[in-house]
Structures are given as structure tokens and as C-alpha cells.
């Protein structure tokens, strides 16, 4: 589903060059649940932006669902992002003066889904993340954890085959974090591919595979760590 080969991303800010990703290669198969861990500034969010086709690499190749991303037009990319990929960003990226309900309805508006259906679905997903009583609150009337859960509901409402989440539990209490992980595991069982950035080991343990990234390079790819953990040795 996701095939990344020899991918590098170099940011240029004035005279400063930052190698955010350095010759990274890996594959993620459909149905995997992958956690990405690594220190601050190691390139995790950059990698997520690449996987989500939000930004282009400086070098290397990216094949998403059999299609070479560099060869797609901007319109094709926008459509893929809206239909195939659900994003939960580190900074939430909610529209500030819109209500929770309006924020979750937005991706469906782009997809041309009728209004009544949009409302009903948005409400259902907000209830799923425990915000049934905050539908009409605007983003600035919500707590950080609540905004995060609105962002999760918005990411899921189009039923994306891939969910990309940057620190989805970073700003929420541990009971809510457990609830979010419960939702992710349920989605993964239903066949959704999940890539989640986290700095918390116990959150990462919910995934089936952990990629460790350091200075823009993958230093450890811990596949099937659960199975290994389960076996006494
Ligand atoms: N748009 C940008 N322009 C210039 N440099 C950038 C840009 N985005 C990220 N960087 C730099 O690239 C490096 C990797 O950043 P990235 O956001 O991917 O880190 P991260 O692993 O997500 O960190 P954190 O855990 O703090 O969120 C950092 O050194 C950062 O300063
Ligand atoms: Mg980040």
C-alpha cells in the first residue's frame, strides 16, 4: 500500500539546510498498524506529511496504492487525500470559528455528500469520540483534548483506508487515550491501515510494528514485536 524508497527531504530556510529525512526506505502493507517513534526533530511529522502526499520529497520515490505520487496532478492528489487518507495533525488544524459538527462535516462537503447525511454522520462520529454534548461548540470553546478528538472524528468520517495520526493522544488524559487506542484497534481490525506517531511507549504497544526514527533515518523496524513479546524467552 505504501512503498517508500530512498526518500530524502531537505528543508532550506535561508542559508540553513535541514536534512529532515535521509534516504529512508520501507513498506507498509494494507491492514498494518504502525507506530513511529523518535526524539523531537527526528523527522516524524515530515515522514507523515510525505506518506500523506501533503509535501513532495527532495529525492526518492513514493508509491501509494500502486500509483507513483510524483506523477499525480494536484487535483488527483487532493482527491486521494480526501477519500483515501484520514489525517490527525499534531496541531489539530481545525477551523477556529466553526463548530465541532461543522469541522467534522467539512471533508464530506468536499466530497459532495448531501447535507442531511453529513450532519448525521458527523454527529455519529463525534458521539463515538465522546463529544455528543459538544456538537455546537466552536474550536476555541473546546479543550486541547476535545479538539484532538474532533480532529480524530474528522479524520474518520470519510472512512479512509489509511489513517495517519501525529500524536493522537498527546494532549489527552490517559482514560481518553485508552479510548482513542480502542477506536484505532477497532478500525485496524476492520481493515484500515494506521500509521501513528507517538512518543509514548505504552501507546506504541497498541501497534503491530514500531518504526524508530533518529536524525531522519530509520534505526529500528520492530515488526511483530507483540508476537515476540508474547513468547517467553
Ligand atoms: N517547514 C520546515 N522548514 C524548515 N525546517 C523544517 C520544516 N519542518 C520541519 N523542519 C525541520 O526538520 C526537522 C524534522 O522536523 P519534524 O517536524 O519532522 O520533527 P518531529 O520528529 O515531528 O518532531 P516533534 O516530535 O518535535 O514533533 C526538524 O529539525 C525541523 O526543525
Ligand atoms: Mg512532529
Overall structural class, as computed from helix and strand content, comes to: alpha/beta
Q: Report the mean per-residue pLDDT as an integer.
A: 91
Question: Which superfamily, in CATH terms, is the homologous superfamily?
Answer: P-loop containing nucleotide triphosphate hydrolases
In the sheet with the most strands, the strands line up as 6-7-8-3-9-10
Beta strand %:
25-35%
Number of beta strands: 10
What is the CATH fold-level name? Rossmann fold
In this structure, how is the largest beta sheet organized? 6 strands, mixed
Taken from the alpha-carbon principal axes, the silhouette is globular
Count the domains: 1
CATH architecture: 3-Layer(aba) Sandwich
Rg calc: 18 Å
Terminal CA distance reads 33 Å
* Low-confidence region ranges: 227-231
List ligands, each type once: adenosine-5'-triphosphate, magnesium ion
What is the multimeric organization of the chains shown? Answer: single chain
Kindly state the percentage of residues in helix.
25-40%
Q: What is the CATH class designation?
A: Alpha Beta
Tally of alpha and pi helices: 8
Order of helices and strands: EEEHEEHEHHHEHEHEEH
Explain this structure.
- This protein has a six-stranded mixed beta sheet with strand order 6-7-8-3-9-10, sandwiched between helices. It has a four-stranded antiparallel beta sheet with strand order 2-1-4-5, covered by helices on one side.
- The protein is globular.
- The two termini are 33 Å apart.
- The longest helix is centred in the last third of the chain and has 16 residues, at 174-189.
- 36% of the residues lie in helices and 28% in strands.
- A hairpin with a 2-residue loop joins β4 (59-64) and β5.
- The chain has helices at 44-51, 74-84, 100-110, 115-128, 144-156, 174-189, 201-204, 225-230; strands at 2-13, 16-28, 33-37, 59-64, 67-68, 85-88, 162-166, 193-197, 209-214, 217-223.
- With 233 residues, the protein is an alpha/beta fold.
- The chain has eight helices and ten strands.
- α4 crosses α5 (144-156).
- The protein has a single domain (30-46, 73-230), classed as P-loop containing nucleotide triphosphate hydrolases (Rossmann fold, 3-Layer(aba) Sandwich).
- Residues 227-231 have low confidence and may be disordered.
- Bound molecules: adenosine-5'-triphosphate and magnesium ion.
- Adenosine-5'-triphosphate (ATP) is lined by residues 11, 13, 18, 20, 38, 40-46, 90.
